[in-house]
Specification:
Distance between the termini: 27 Å
Helix content: under 10%
Length: about 290
Amino acid sequence: MAVVLLILLNVAACGSQSESVSEPEQNNELTPVEENPDLDSMVVSGFDSTSQDATSPWFASVSLYRLNSELGTTGDATVNLVRYRDDFPVSNHVEYFGKVLDDCRVTDPDASPVTLDTDGSPPEFISGGVSVVINSPSGPWFTLNSNTVDGKVAYSIDNGLPGELLPDGATLSIPGDIFPSVAAHPLSDPAVPVRLLPEAGAPVTTDTMYSWVPGTGNSYMRISIVTDDAVSEFVDIVGCDVIDDGSFMMPPAVLEFVASSSVQLRVRYSRVHNRIDLVNNIAIRQQSIVAE
């Protein structure tokens, strides 16, 4: 299994600021991360994920992240809304956000940022209203207000979600503006990961075994080997996206890295729910991550 040295990028459909809301250039499309991603890592509904026939200019990206052990202080959420050209293939989003499972990446914290190789900049984030709302069956659960960052409209909160996982029956509503309205799109969290090995806090060595209680839903596991930086924040050094079957054996290149490391390393387990739905000609991607 090849391990690639790179800066890990959380790439959304962002682009340069523009006052125009006209249709993007024809070459403004996502470049797949992998030629043939393992789509077992993604739930797809509303169209055939292998077909090039489904098209939509509208794309909403919803990202949620929580540490279960610190729910009251680690709740992040971001909703980005984008308009592509009218004949943009929805399958491009699937290819881009799909993950190859049982694959590991090593991060060099000191390397220079990597420029994404695309044929053109994706269009800018656009407005879907003054705010978007995550609802529970009993009413609003959290409101994300519109804000402009570096000239791009976004809806986000950093460490500000309620101190709980999403309620059962949670939905996202977008009132609509340039981006069309979405009445109630279902949202869900994956189950909290439960580690078996190594013990919590134990240092990572080349002999470390990796196991957890396997999941029963449509999610995958992310095994992160982390260290503390100078300001006591976690720095991910190794990230492995793996099948949620309860165990994983690190490839030789990761073991070589662990053996050569001069700092203490630890492991963190996260479960990732990753899906794309095509609803009323709107492609909605959700990535919800719950770490232990």
